Amino acid sequence: MTSTLGSAPSTLPQANESCWCGSGRKYKRCHKKSEGRILQGLITPMREVPANIARPPYADTGEYEAWDEGRVKSPEIIERMRASGKLAGEVLKMAGDMVKPGVTTETIDIAVHQAFIDGGAYPSTINYHGYPKACCTSVNEVICHGIPDSRELQEGDICNIDVTGWLDGVHGDTNATFFVGDVDPESQQLVNVTEESMWRGIEAVKVGRPLSDIGRAIEDTVKPYKYGVVRAFVGHGIGEQFHTDIQVLHYYDSRSSTIMRAGMTFTIEPMITLGTINYKIWDDDWTAVTSDGRRTAQFEHTLLVTDEGPQVLTGGPGTASPTAPWKR
Questions:
Q1: Full-prediction pTM beyond 0.85?
Q2: 81 and 7 housed in the same domain
């Protein structure tokens, strides 16, 4: 169960007393089962994007109709994707720099919203299937698609921020997980290994090889730590559409046999857990959390396949994950 009334009070009621959230239910039947877990705060209405910013087809209606977009992009589209990816990477770095105790994810979202507009881009997530915000903020046990709200980040949290911008008719998509103040060693290791697993997956991108190589590389990276690899959410093709029909699994499956070709563009975005990979969706129909309440981390880049190897369209100087950790 989720609350739209903000965080729990400092003094909690007894089990048989009325819950602090105002639901009218006993505390033991309501929020007691959520102790120690993230509770949703107030979510403000969707913000407007100025009329001078070009808009993707779904922006006004929230209805997304896919079309048959070619998997191999033209040189002209690729150049536009470089610009869109660069902007997304810079916006994510800016958002990550804001992460600290006491800052709300709503405040981060406002900054992301404005940064994309200042860059001449439409924040891709706004009204995509009705999603209300300019980014996703997923804290602690939230796997993905957390909606920015009034909850203040707490010392020791980990916070994933996922941003996508639509610039000159194409999308750039990237995310990273950030530490909120001093974070425990277990969570630090989870985040660091998750970032490494993304880069190992990127290294596996080679013309003529199946997409399953990516999932194998990610699994091989996290297996020694006994981490879980979320299977319900995967990487995806991207270009003029936010999501195309390419699916990039973050675990090995021989059926993921699509052969990588020069000019393909897709995301690699592993979601790695300390515990179970099973998940629940909150009542908002977006926020996915681990069933056991244990923490999870994620990193993402948009990739271009070339004959010389992968090119990271959302990486490089001034981004949140500029290059592989072992090359820094």
A1: yes
A2: no
